[in-house]
């Protein structure tokens, strides 16, 4: 009898842990038992093209201008990097398109004439 009770308790605990882990990755951010690491983070996946003073275009990698190990890039940080690149005279304008991933889901993002447009 003890063996069957112990097995029932182990199964119940295992199922409870599995259910808790599954609900930790559901799309309801900031609630109790949710994994809060990603509910406030914003990721940008974007392809940018910079136009130089002489009219040439070249790809721009914004991650080259972040500190090593940084990968979370939201619209304000992206705009700051674009402002730096255009103010430094490296590019006259920067354009591009991509996706913005956040707690609100996935949405398109564009850069037009060095300005972030959601």
Could you explain how this protein is built, in words?
The structure is a single chain. With 118 residues, this protein is of the alpha+beta class. The chain is 30% helix and 29% strand. It is built from two helices and five strands; from the N terminus they run αββαβββ. It has a five-stranded antiparallel sheet, covered by helices on one side.
Spatially, the strands of the biggest sheet line up as 2-1-3-4-5
Largest β-sheet summary: 5 strands, antiparallel
N- to C-terminal distance: 63 Å
Overall mean pLDDT score?
83
Radius of gyration of CA atoms, rounded to a whole number: 23 Å
Helix content: 25-40%
Strand content: 25-35%
Low-pLDDT runs of 5+ residues are 30-34
Shape: rod-shaped
How many strands in all? 5
Multimeric state = single chain
Number of helices: 2
Core attributes:
single chain; 118 residues; 30% helix
Summarize the structure.
The chain is α+β, with helices and mostly antiparallel strands and 118 residues long.
Write the layout of secondary structure elements.
Elements: H1 2-23, E1 43-51, E2 57-60, H2 75-87, E3 93-102, E4 105-112, E5 115-117
Antiparallel strand pairs: 1-2, 1-3, 3-4, 4-5
